[in-house]
Design goal:
- The complex is a heterodimer.
- Chain A is an all-alpha fold.
- The longest helix of chain A is centred in the middle third of the chain and has 37 residues.
- Chain B is an all-alpha fold.
- Chain B has two domains: 183 residues, no CATH class; 47 residues.
- Helices cover 79% and strands 0% of the residues of chain B.
- Chain B has ten helices and no strands.
- Chain B starts with a helix and ends with a helix.
- Classes of the chains: A mainly alpha, B mainly alpha.
- The interface between A and B is large, with 40 and 42 residues.
Chain lengths: 250, 239
């Protein structure tokens, strides 16, 4: 564990030697993934604790119902400045509330239904499930994009094996441990931006070290898949637009 | 058994060693089959525990169905529509059908189905492994691979390793998502590259060509199916 923390610290400080030693290890992917999972779990810790405490707090059903209606009314009031652009009919808020009330009632009645295990057990298990799902969600995004980066890197002459490339790029998740501060008002947004940029920089550096090529090629390997995806999406959208225009013309 | 589990675990991290060890086994297909069965049964058993816990923390579906119906019936616009007996009857029929189909599609906990997976998951993973192994072997040989079919089946059996991630579903509400599929693809790439001693480009082609072949077969069947349907129904209406 101490060794992993040391690696995390060196990675955050962009110490070249740490990257080289990490890539040279036989268990490079195992170590990279362990750091990815740990960083993601650390990032979600505060939200998890807050959710569990919130779920275990005894609350009056009537108060909850009032709170829900109030928050709905508040979100409708926040539409007020947009009113001139949205062209809302008069009495729109009242009508919406009238339709929302039965749905809120349905939600509360379902929440009050009995379950074989006590309710708090279910709530905590749901919070735990969401907390433990976050590393898998990060892994899916990292791997989904990573295979395209890997392909472009190979085409650009990269020498890394799959486990080396993935084990190295998994280190991008380390700064995201700071996302633990994301629930803090004002600071959260800034932290999110900083960790994202820091993570991308680590990703590029790790990819360059793993493949034994320049940072320029690493940047190209990271950017090209995004450009291709963007170009394909744009072509698809243009195609749909042309079809729509043709059918409208016909 | 311990060796096989360790090998599957090592294969998950995409290092060449477990795949190379499998290639040199005396009976790789049998070893491969054992790995597929062990992993599948373990995942299904763990999934059963997770599903049972989810079921025990979820209200009865029939109660939810009743409450939603009562809620809809109380809605203002619906009361006017319900005065029409034909609408009322049709709505109730569709409502019942919808509740029979959709909750299961969206992952409502079903213990019987989770228990059946103890038999069905090993069968489906074995079938997929054999089919993929065979087709990928043909492409790998065409691309200059040197492995035998037995070695190939042994190595591609390690492609089942990412299923180990599903062991996390021991806890309910844990979502693994699409990571298993992508990871399986990577394991198969390493398996093909190691077994057939191919270059990375050829190994990539041999890994992806079975998927492309499957896509072609499925689309051909879909086209044939729609052509046959058009022929039958088109012929029927013209007379």
């Amino acid at each position: 564990m101490k060794e992993l923390l040391q690696l995390a610290r060196s990675v955050l400080l962009f110490k070249h030697e740490a990257y080289v030693q990490h890539v040279a290890r036989a268990d490079v992917l195992k170590r990279g993934l362990t750091l990815l999972v740990l960083a993601t779990l650390v990032a979600g810790t505060i939200s998890f604790i807050v959710n569990v405490v919130e779920d275990l707090r005894p609350r009056n059903l009537e108060t909850q119902r009032r709170e829900t209606e109030e928050s709905l009314r508040e979100s409708l009031e926040s539409l007020e400045p947009m009113r001139q652009y949205l062209d809302l009919p008069p009495g729109f808020e009242r009508e919406l509330l009238k339709y929302a009330r039965p749905n809120i009632e349905i939600g509360f009645r379902i929440a009050a239904l009995p379950t074989p295990l006590p309710k708090p057990v279910g709530s905590v298990l749901q919070d735990l499930g969401a907390f433990l799902s976050s590393p898998f969600s990060r892994m899916a995004k990292w791997l989904g994009y990573g295979i395209w980066v890997l392909l472009v890197a190979k085409l650009l002459g990269g020498r890394a094996t799959v486990s080396q490339a993935l084990g190295a790029t998994a280190l991008y998740a380390v700064p995201h441990a700071l996302d633990i501060l994301s629930p803090v008002p004002c600071l959260g947004g800034v932290i999110g931006l900083v960790t994202t940029i820091w993570g991308i920089a680590i990703y590029v550096k790790a990819l360059a070290v793993a493949n034994g090529f320049s940072v320029g090629r690493a940047v190209a390997s990271v950017v090209v898949p995004a450009l291709v995806i963007g170009a394909l999406a744009l072509t698809g959208l243009l195609g749909i637009l042309i079809l729509a225009l043709m059918s409208a013309g016909g | 058994m311990k060796t096989l589990i360790r090998r599957a675990w090592d294969a998950l991290f995409l290092s060449k060693a477990p795949y190379a060890e499998m290639r040199e086994e005396s009976n790789p297909p049998l070893r491969g089959l054992s790995i597929v069965i062990i992993v599948a049964v373990a995942v299904a058993l763990v999934g059963l525990v997770g599903t049972a816990l989810e079921w025990a923390t979820t209200p009865k579906l029939s109660d939810i169905q009743r409450i939603v119906l009562e809620g809809i019936q109380k809605m203002e616009g619906f009361r006017e529509l319900e005065e029409n007996p034909e609408f009322r009857e049709r709505f109730l029929r569709w409502y019942e059908t919808g509740w029979r189909v959709f909750p299961h599609l969206f992952g409502a906990p079903n213990i019987v189905r989770a228990a059946l997976r103890i038999v069905l998951l090993p069968l489906s993973l074995t079938f997929t492994w054999l089919l993929y192994g065979l087709v990928a072997h043909l492409f790998a040989r065409l691309l200059g691979g040197t492995g035998t079919l037995g070695q190939m089946l042994g190595c591609t059996a390690l492609g089942v390793a990412p299923q180990l991630l599903n062991l996390a579903t021991f806890l309910p509400y844990v979502a693994i998502g699409g990571v298993v599929g992508t990871w399986t693809l990577l394991c198969r790439y390493v398996a093909l590259k190691t077994c057939h001693r191919l270059t990375w480009g050829r190994a990539l082609a041999a890994t992806l060509l079975p998927y492309a072949a499957l896509a072609v077969v499925v689309s051909s069947f879909a086209c044939l199916g729609s052509a046959a349907t058009a022929l039958i129904f088109g012929g029927g209406t013209s007379q």
